[in-house]
Structure prediction request, 97 residues.
Amino acid sequence: MKRWITRLNEWADYPEIDAFLDELAEVYRKHGLCLSHEDDHGAFVVEPLTNLELGRLMAAFDNRPERPDLKGIERKKVEGIERKKVKPEHRRKPGRR
Prediction:
């Protein structure tokens, strides 16, 4: 799934993030609960699982500062993947609705 990669300022696929979120979704489903955000101050809230909250989980941004497996490697354009550049003033900040 394509998701927003904050450090690259573009949309891209990273299967390791998909696998991580899939495992979290399974834990959510197992318990019928999910973690949500109360506000912008970092507090998490445990809530009943809903399709809306599951969708929010699966739409998560990749906000890691750097991918360890790409450290020191020059990024190359991947054929067939369109990379959308966004001007800084138009960037959506993670956690803002």
